User: Fold this.
Amino acid sequence: MRPGRAPRPTGRPDDGDRLPRRREHRRRTPATLRRYRSSLAWWHAAGGYANPCATTALSTPLPETDLANAGLAALRRFLDVAQRGLASATLRGVRADARVFAAWCGARGLSWLPAAPETVCAFLQGAGATRKPATIARYLASIALLHRAAEHHNPCDHWSVTLERRGHAREHGSARRQATALTDAVLEPILDRLVTTDKRPLRPIDRRDRALLLVGRDTLARASELVALRWADLHSVDPDDPEARPGEGIICIRRSKTDPEGEGAEVWLSAEAMAALAAWRVVAPRWPDSVTGAAARASG
Assistant:
């Protein structure tokens, strides 16, 4: 303590609350703190209690507390099993949709778990002004899933909710925007720049990009499937195969959006893609082996 400076007063009632909060703010990013608040709000709403993180939180618990507590226990059991049975992206979407619905109900003093069909209809009318039919359908799927998980009657099965969803789809249209295909006309100018010349040799990142583009063109794989490919799943075609051409290969896509169980599928690769992969493999970084810890390229 510097001379002449008074010591910091202690013993105030809010010191014990404010100091941990200040330390938490210093150690956590704003995104992490927002996630903490969202998780607290989600579990309080699941238990039938007011959201302590909201400025307009109710001062008393919502009705049917015993029923909500039973539903909360069922939700916990569901989440324990869903960690293995559902994709992580699906769980993130369900949690996000639950936060939206719980916040809407909490601001109006309504119970969201279990929710009445009238509550879901009112929610759709409010959200439908700014949401597309695909988003509305996802909200309803998440609400239905959580009610089934909490062993409550599904309000989305009510005829009024079905008609409200259909009415919204008729008013706004249910057509979805299709992503632009990566055709040869788009791909060829990019590949032309990823070739070795006298003035510009290919960098390792250029070899990687060329290999990924060619593999994506041949396999039509999604981005998540491309980054999950392994060298161990790549091999040349059988030379005795009369339909095979020299230099072609086959790679196994272990898991995809349409194959969540991981049965796997083997897809064809052109000789051009195989050559690009061979060029990338020469300069690819080495990753530690999961068993021995030695640096190797077989895993990545």
